[in-house]
Amino acid sequence: MDSNIIIPKHIGIIMDGNGRWAKKRMLPRNMGHKKGAEVFQDITRYCNELGLESVTFYAFSTENWKRPVEEVNGIMTLLKEYLVKAFDYEKENNRIVFLGDKSAFTGELLELMLDIEEKTKDRTGMTLNIALNYGARNEIVKATKDIAQLVKDGKMNVEDITEETFSDYLYTKGQPDPDFILRPSGEKRISNFLLWQIAYSEFVYMDVLWPDFTRKDLDEAIIEFNKRNRRFGGV
Ligand code: IPE
Ligand code: IPE
Ligand code: MG
Fold first, then answer.
1. Domain count, the chain
2. Catalytic residue at 192?
3. Is the pTM of this model over 0.70?
4. Helices assigned H by DSSP within the chain
């Protein structure tokens, strides 16, 4: 990429369009998820190569449980497979964090998630956030409850609740807000992703379906981001 291009610190990616990709090919939806998981792995590596500080992938929302049970099971099986693969590239030095309510997970998948977080927590490279059973409203309610409990127990004063302290009770604690949110598949909506953290994020929507998404598409999105003039309320 052109050396004048500024690489963002943190990109949020809504991986969408797997189902439509499969449908176009008369394949079952889970084949779209499989191809999508391969793209996820490659784009993660590319984000590392570009030198991002963090990247957040939206992999499964709190609303996605509404899908047919065989699709949900297929996604969970793929997750196990790709998390192990992702974890195999130990040399890449990623810190892996799962954003979302883990209480929905049990057994092998939950153990794997906890193990990956524990083993990677002190790493110094890019933070790879994977949003799993993630919903931004759920996250904000959870933070509110945690804070309310602390106040009730006399461990926190109401005056100490600020934008900064509130952020400490979100799954993204200690992390920079995303510079931009990228959504492929042609949909132009946020679907309950990072509502608090995107206050000043730029949005880049692309028509490509996630399983067709390439490194070149990410380059294009970053170039588009570079054309934006972020003002954060100033002049
Ligand atoms: C994104 O692709 C994957 C998940 C939400 C788990 P979709 O499965 O939503 O694909 P479309 O939107 O139906 O094409
Ligand atoms: C958002 O995609 C969630 C993920 C990509 C994990 P959806 O496909 O679930 O969103 P909607 O239903 O089109 O808004
Ligand atoms: Mg979708």
1. 1
2. no
3. yes
4. 18-24, 29-50, 69-88, 107-120, 136-152, 163-167, 215-226
Rg (CA), the chain: 18
End-to-end C-alpha distance for the chain, whole angstroms = 30
Q: What is the pLDDT of residue 97?
A: 96
C-alpha 152/C-alpha 187 separation (Å) is 42
CB neighbour class for 129 (10 Å; exposed up to 12, middle 13-18, buried from 19): buried
Q: Which residues line ligand 2 (CB under 6 A)?
A: 14-16, 58-61, 64, 187, 189, 191
Boundaries of domain holding 186: 10-135+177-226
pLDDT per residue over 80-113, tens digit each? 998 877 765 566 789 999 999 999 999 999 999 9
Catalytic choice (64, 138, 192, 226)? 64
Would the pLDDT of 33 be above 80?
Answer: yes
Read off the CATH number of the domain in which 98 is found: 3.40.1180.10
Q: Kindly state whether residue 38 falls inside one of the protein's structural domains.
A: yes
CA 65 to CA 141: how far, in whole Å?
Answer: 19
- Residue 5 CA to ligand 2 center (angstroms) comes to 30
**What percent of the chain is predicted at pLDDT more than 90?**
91
Give a yes or no: residue 163 inside a domain.
no
Distance from residue 16's CA to the centre of ligand 1 (Å): 5
